[in-house]
Amino acid sequence: MALIECVPNVSEGRRLDVVEALAGAVSNVHHVRLLDRSSDATHNRSVLTLAGEPPAVHDAVMALFEAALARIDMRDHTGAHPRLGAVDVVPFIPLGHTTMAVCVELARQTAAAVADRFQLPVFLYEEAASSPARRNLADIRRGEFEGLAAKLASPEWRPDYGPASPHPTAGATVLGARRPLVAFNVNLTTNRLEIAKAIAAAVRQSSGGLPSVKALGIALPERDIVQVSMNLTNFELTSIKRAFETVREEADRHGVSVLESEIVGLVPQAALPPAPEQTLQLAGFRRNQVLEERLKEA
Predict the structure, then answer these.
(1) For a Cys-Cys bond, which of 178, 271, 272, 273 suits 126, CB 3.0-4.6 Å?
(2) Are strands 87-95 and 173-177 parallel, antiparallel or unpaired?
(3) Exactly one of 43, 58, 77, 81 is catalytic; which is it?
(4) Collapsing DSSP states into helix, strand and coil, what is residue 95?
(5) By CB neighbour count within 10 A (0-12 exposed, 13-18 middle, 19+ buried), where does 227 fall?
(6) Closest Cα partner for 205 from 162, 171, 243?
């Protein structure tokens, strides 16, 4: 039996009734389990985590697009997190003995179906990418929703599926296959965004920092602090602990401190250090955020 984890990111984190409707659309699909969901108002983004066999996961993703496109208008969307569309990114991740090839095939089949049913431009990324230039999600997302029309007009950025023009309300979407990643944020005891951006630049791989780390500096105005928001795309190359300690060292250099950290969504047990609440100054961490624990429950 092939088992797939899927972690759609949608561009809505403030209207919780909409998030509830999206979660319900996924949960109503037979043989799929919604393992987790989290929403962030500042990012204006929600992350759903679901699991099942490939056909059921495909059906759940199609149901999610249908629900999201009926409720999210990107022309009205604002948020701290970069985004390209209403359903921004949909990665498929192999679980157990499932191969990456199964996830790549599922990504391509689902991308074609999304483009056909919803007339939505679709890009493939990571292991499902159609070219090396499209592996990196940040490159595809650059320009965001507001710059999408100009991007799609360029021959090198024609979508892999669907029209070469944005959906008027839903923009575009990105589907792919990847390894498990850890979404990890570190909050700082300052409201100076330039410090968070400088620390993000110091830790992310693309500017000479840690391997397999993507990072952004983000303001959290409702708390009057800033955040270093990271994705650890291979926690075996750069552990959560190393990423945290590097951010803390960089913060010290800038004369500020770490307030707390957080893990967004689920995390593999192997990625956690001993006593993570203390080691990482984790705020609000729950044991049911461990992927294996949620799979056992399901």
Answers:
(1) 178
(2) parallel
(3) 81
(4) strand
(5) buried
(6) 243
Measure the CA angle with vertex 22, ends 17 and 25; round to 5°.
125
Biggest CA–CA distance in the chain, Å, is: 53
Cα torsion angle, 276, 278, 283, 286, sign: positive
Residue 173's pLDDT is what? 98
Q: What is the mean pLDDT of residues 150-159?
A: 96
Does the reported pTM lie above 0.70?
A: yes
Q: Which domains can be identified in the chain, with CATH numbers?
A: 3-177 (3.30.990.10), 182-297 (3.30.70.670)
239-242 long-range contacts, Cβ below 8 Å, gap at least 24? 239/271, 239/273, 240/182, 240/184, 240/267, 240/271, 240/272, 240/273, 240/276, 240/280, 241/273, 241/279, 241/280, 242/210
CA-CA distance, 278 to 198, in Å (whole number)? 25
81 is an active site residue: yes
Question: Closest Cα to residue 227, out of 37, 81, 84?
Answer: 81
Parallel, antiparallel or unpaired: strands 182-188 and 122-126:
unpaired
The structure tokens listed for 243 are 């990423």
pLDDT in tens, 241-283: 999 999 999 999 999 999 999 999 899 999 999 999 999 999 9
SS3 content of the chain, % helix, strand, coil (to 5): 40, 25, 35
- Rounded-to-integer distance, Cα 66 and Cα 272, Å: 35
The H helix count followed by the E strand count for the chain is: 9, 11
